[in-house]
Amino acid sequence: MKISPLHFFIDFEFTMSENRSTPKNFFPEIIEAGIVIVEKDKIINQFSTYIRPKAFPTLTNRCKSFLNISQKKVQDGASFKELIHIFNTYNVQERGIVVTWGNMDMKVLKHNCEYQGIAFPTPYKHVDLSLEYKKFFGDQNQTGLWKAVQEYGKEGTGKHHRALDDALTTYNIFRLVEKDKRYLAKPMPTTIGERIDLTKILNKYAL
């Protein structure tokens, strides 16, 4: 019996530097995670939590302002180890397809794992939906998440730069793109001219 794959639509929000006042060794850490788990095109679970940063636990003013996030919310959040436990619970390595908008989410996840000495939950397959979108529409530049969904005549779910809302928006775009791919993959119906040799009919009545 073939086990159907799980799609993990993931979005992370990261710590941000405060320009020149930030330490030179600064690197982004995950401080909010949104995960939408889909099986056979149905959402079977959602996960959302704030994550406590370890290397630079104090958020910069720029980060708090841009993400509209408070220091307390982050301090009261889960540990990074608990986030990785979610991946391991769903056996991402064996049957998971991770879908993100852009490649930063997985890069930061990998770097955070290395920093904290935790094994990276390597997915079976990773899909950068922003690249899929770019190739599908022939765009020269990569499009932002919410601009992409608006180009479909839709609106994003909830608020931009909230991890779970962005993960849900990524899932919605994925469905729209996959629907268009299936539509374009269908063979075009033959015309009546292709089904009937019109030259024989014209020759018959030419006299």
Automatic annotation (TrEMBL):
It comes from the Bacteria. GO terms for molecular function: exonuclease activity. Pfam families: RNase_T. Keywords: Exonuclease, Hydrolase, Nuclease. Its EC number is 3.1.-.-. Residues 8-183 form the Exonuclease domain. It is an enzyme of class 3 (hydrolase). The keyword Hydrolase applies. The gene is dinG_3. InterPro entries: 3-5_Exoribonuclease, ERI-1_3'hExo-like, Ribonucl_H, RNaseH-like_sf, RNaseH_sf. This is 3'-5' exonuclease DinG.
